[in-house]
Amino acid sequence: MEKMMTSVFLFSANHFSRKTDRSHTDLLLYEFYDKIICMKNITLEAAPMEGITNYIFRNLHHKYFGGADCYFSPFIGIYSNNNVKRRDLCDIYPENNSGIRLVPQVLTNRAENFIWIFKKLREFGYEEINLNLGCPSGTVTAKGRGAGFLIYPDKLEEFFDQVFDALGDEAKLISVKTRIGFSNPSEMERLTEIYNKFPFKELIIHPRVREEYYNGSPHLDTFEKALNASTVPVCYNGNIFNLNDYNQITIGFHNLSGVMIGRGLLADPSLARQIKGGKAMTIDELRTFINELEAAYTEHLKSERNVLFKMKELWTYLARNFSGGDRYIKKLLKAKTLTEYRVQKNLILNDDMI
Fold first, then answer.
1. Is residue 354 part of a domain?
2. Cβ(72)–Cβ(46) under 8 Å?
3. pLDDT at 1
4. What is the pLDDT of residues 291-313, one digit of tens each?
5. So which residues are the signal peptide here (predicted)?
6. Is the dihedral of CA 84, 85, 86, 92 positive or negative?
7. Is 263 annotated as contributing to ligand binding?
């Protein structure tokens, strides 16, 4: 990226210093250069993936691959009397996230609960707190939370009114991760009106509706309208699996504040590093990362069954890296014990099939 930036800058400076009218080609070059400058300022954000991207995973990913400018925690649920699961609190304790920039994510549809947890998280020193309006899970949306909150735009607007009134200037540290609607992309027009009323730190848009889950192609036309209409910084999220995907989005859409990568970063943990000009993942790197992750889970979770579940879930994403290893992957995902899992894991990682 640095070399490309330098060469483009030198050519552009020399070219545009001439006292001549700009041709169509000149303007295209200028526009391309302008987009490259914007791309340089885009932050790479690691998406929260429930059950996978906990602090153990985040720390090891940062250690071995890096590239992500920040990591979002899986959502913190708030229960009656402002109770939070001990596991969720442990995941966002600053001492468990040393050396990385963490953005805690909150799941709620009650303003008083959000205000309470926001203040607690500020006491921990966090400079951004994210509200989840994108989770498509039926158990979440049925309670009007996550993407389920999008069904009630008037209530959502009232929620933000209460939150911003209570928190004052501190509310500018709130970011939102949203889908473009619950059942129809046209819902994003009303949602954009709501989001534009408040000075959010960032609006992260996944251009699918809840009913699509992660299926089909993102609605890029709807995303473009929302991006152009937004009065706050906008981050793109959805279907970034390789460098080409990233380049298409960042060159195709001007003025993005960031790009959030979820499934793509699980499938290829080196993707953020590659975007920043680093090397692609090697089999040795992946082997070391997987083995250390498994060892850390074994130490912290105690239960072999839980370790097995977590490792198999990660492998559902990693599997796409391997050619010719389908039979090993299938056996790994069907493993009923940690011993069976390790046999197949070693066959895959020692066979250099990446």
1. no
2. yes
3. 43
4. 999 999 999 998 999 999 999 99
5. none
6. negative
7. yes
Are both 32 and 91 inside the same structural domain? no
Question: Which amino acid is residue 348, in one-letter code?
Answer: I
Q: Which two tokens stand for residue 36?
A: 């490259």
Q: Which of 9-18, 198-207, 237-246 has the lowest mean pLDDT?
A: 9-18
pLDDT confidence bin for 81, thresholds 50/70/90: confident
Q: Domain range spanning residue 22?
A: 2-39
Is 105 annotated in a binding site? The answer is yes
On the question of pLDDT at 261 being above 60, the answer is yes
Asked if 302 and 208 sit in the same domain, the reply is no
> For residue 223, which amino acid is it?
F
pLDDT at 302: 82
pLDDT above 50: residue 200:
yes
211 has a pLDDT exceeding 70: yes
3-state class (DSSP) for residue 102:
strand
Active-site position among 38, 70, 135, 235: 135
Domain termination residue (choose one: 217, 244, 275) = 275
How far apart, in whole angstroms, are the C-alpha atoms of residue 294 and residue 119? 34
Q: Please say if 135 is a catalytic residue.
A: yes
Residue 255 domain-assigned (yes or no): yes
> Is 120 among the annotated ligand-binding positions?
no
Rounded Cα gap, residues 97 and 101, in angstroms: 8
Alpha helices of the chain — where are they, by DSSP H? 2-16, 24-40, 55-64, 86-92, 111-123, 138-141, 153-167, 188-195, 220-229, 243-252, 263-267, 271-275, 283-301, 304-318, 326-334, 338-349
Global pTM value? 0.88
Last residue within a domain, chosen from 235, 258, 275: 275
pLDDT score of 23: 54
Of the candidates 67, 43, 76, the one whose C-alpha atom is nearest the C-alpha of residue 257 is 43
Whole-number Å distance between alpha carbons of 266 and 53: 9
Contacts of 247 (CB under 8 A, 6+ apart): none
Query: Among residues of the chain, what percentage have pLDDT more than 90?
Result: 83
Is there a binding annotation on residue 177?
yes
Is residue 77 marked as binding? no
Phi, psi dihedral angles at 343 (to 5 degrees): -60, -50
